[in-house]
Amino acid sequence: MNMEGLKDTSSQFTLDGKPFRIFGGSIHYFRVPKQYWEDRLMKMKACGINTLTTYVPWNLHEPERGAFNFENQLDLGAYVTLAAEVGLWVILRPGPYICAEWDLGGLPSWLLRDENMQLRTTCPGFVGAVNHYFDKLMPIIKPLLYKEGGPVIALQIENEYGSYGKDKDYMKFIKNCFQSRGIDELLMTSDNWEGLRCGGTKGVLQTINLQRLSFGAIQHLADIQPHKPLMVMEYWTGWFDVWGEHHHVFHLEDMLNVVSEILERGININLYMFHGGTSFGFLNGALDLGTFKPQVTSYDYDAPLSEAGDCTAKYHALRNLFSQYHSEPLPAVPITQQKGVYSPVIVEQHLSLWNSLFTTYKPYMSELPMNIERLPVNNNNGQSYGYTLYETNITCGGTLYSKNNIRDRALVFVDRQFVGTLDYRNHEVVLLDGQGRRTLSFLVENCGRVNYGKALNEQRKGIVGDIFLNQIPLRGFAILSLEMKPDFIKRLMILDEWKSGSHCSSMPGFFRARLFIDGPPRDTFIKLPGWGKGAVFVNSHNLGRHWSIGPQHCLYLPGPWLNSGENQIIIFEEQKTDGVINFAEVPDHGKTIDVYKFPFCSLL
């Protein structure tokens, strides 16, 4: 049996010596509940896609240095094997950097404990960490390779490096990381048009990322890489959203016109995203092209499969188009599950944040403010996500000045009474004079680390430098980590300090309600129109952030995370609540705007 694998030795791919065309689509296993992997992959197959692509997020697989997780939701081997069973080939994109609108582009935050760290370079600290991670990851990938009988026909090394770095040895180092560990399938890079000039490395096929056929992008790729297959590794079917702006849509006709032309020209394609899913928890990334913009929880992306896995008009149009390139009829489309529209539930109990603090780690005492990555928590790996409380004492009022050292947003309290907000736009808060010694508190939220651009090395969070009161730097901090992990939520639920009713006189607070479900649970969307900002936990699952500024006005709640019978809902709320939790059958992504109005979408 010939096991040559995927080859790029002519203008057309071959697989075992026979012509092969990649009709790809991206679905990230870490953004889709494991119980729904099969449903999403079968819908992909039924659309005429023959190749699944997925990133591999380092920060989830090695959340603490040397502590690895490839189980349950993170069982990469099970996901790739399932794709093979459905009848899909696989292109893996293991990074180590993945972008993906994911916190720090998938790099673990503990890397930033090293003050000399230079991410995505050949600096010793980064090289050592990558080697240690790949020593664990590659033995998991190797049995999945095509030449080992698996479905993985190609792997992408790094991601859009041409838009980031100029370390001439870095891409050669990453390539060697793969090959020296026995990865001998076809290797690829991917870059936007601007990055093609310096994002490649010898012996690795270059591919391009785009949304529009402009700037002669495809011809440019052909010119720099003659007699090679042409591939659009990321054809952007939509776009991501950031808090405080509109929901991006890419109209079906505009998308279909470009995809049709790509296919007519014989070019290989991967739809990014085919199904976006959700950036559950606090794992959304952020954009910083001069202004910091944290991304929303939903990763719907206006993709052919919606956030909840529903087939959209884009899906059916693409299925019709792709069917013209298959000699056999496509499989039937799996039936879409009905959603649950549950009756609103009323908050039954509340708990002030200040009364919950003893359930967390003990405060860490530090004369100087300290970024969260350096905190002595999580086996000395620092804090990655969520909130952090910094407290010190003051004896006077005046002007509090952050010098932009709050990352990314802080609620400010004096004697636990709210006095203002500091963030990347507002750097000053005025404190009134008071009697004697008072407690000054900063509840700081990591809103999401930048995942794309030159600012990766500046993504330390918390308080990253001096805060001044009347031009005098504050000293003597008690620092408390509030990551709100599942074990914290479970401990919270058994506290005796919960009080009846939905009115909390001392905000922020936690609000508790119960949802009772008769029969099998179904997917639904949580809506909180009378609330302000915070996070939602259902049966200890962190659904993600809610924020009244939008555009996202709902949170996806997967049916498999619900119980038949009683379900516990806890909402952390910073600002306000009307005491009611609503449910909807369809999402509310907010006011829309066409991505064509944003020229940078063609260049990212």
Description:
The chain is of the alpha/beta class and 604 residues long. It has 3 domains: 326 residues, Glycosidases (TIM Barrel), CATH 3.20.20.80; 102 residues, Jelly Rolls, CATH 2.60.120; 108 residues, Galactose-binding domain-like (Jelly Rolls), CATH 2.60.120. Helices cover 16% and strands 29% of the residues. Strand 9, helix 6 and strand 10 form a beta-alpha-beta unit. Helix 1 packs parallel to helix 3 and helix 7 packs parallel to helix 8. The longest helix has 18 residues. It starts with 5 loop residues before the first strand and ends in a 10-residue tail after the last strand. The C terminus is likely disordered.
Short description:
By secondary structure, the protein is an alpha/beta fold. It contains ten helices and 38 strands. The strands form nine sheets. The protein has an eight-stranded parallel barrel, surrounded by five helices. Strands 30-16-31-36-33-34 form a six-stranded antiparallel sheet. Strands 17-29-18-24-21-22 form a six-stranded antiparallel sheet, with no helix packed on it.
Task: Please write out the topology.
Layout: E1 6-7, E2 14-15, E3 18-19, E4 23-27, H1 37-46, E5 51-55, H2 58-61, H3 76-86, E6 89-95, H4 124-141, E7 152-157, H5 170-179, E8 186-191, E9 205-210, H6 217-224, E10 231-236, E11 247-249, H7 252-264, E12 268-275, E13 286-288, E14 292-294, H8 313-323, E15 345-346, E16 349-352, H9 353-356, E17 364-366, E18 387-394, E19 398-401, E20 406-407, E21 409-414, E22 417-423, E23 428-431, E24 438-445, E25 450-452, E26 462-463, E27 468-469, E28 472-473, E29 477-482, H10 486-493, E30 499-500, E31 509-517, E32 524-527, E33 533-538, E34 541-547, E35 555-557, E36 565-573, E37 580-584, E38 592-594
Parallel strand pairs: 4-5, 4-12, 5-6, 6-7, 7-8, 8-9, 9-10, 10-12, 11-38, 13-25
Antiparallel strand pairs: 1-2, 2-3, 13-14, 15-37, 16-30, 16-31, 17-29, 18-24, 18-29, 19-23, 19-27, 20-26, 21-22, 21-24, 27-28, 31-36, 32-35, 32-37, 33-34, 33-36
Helix pairs in contact: 1-3, 7-8
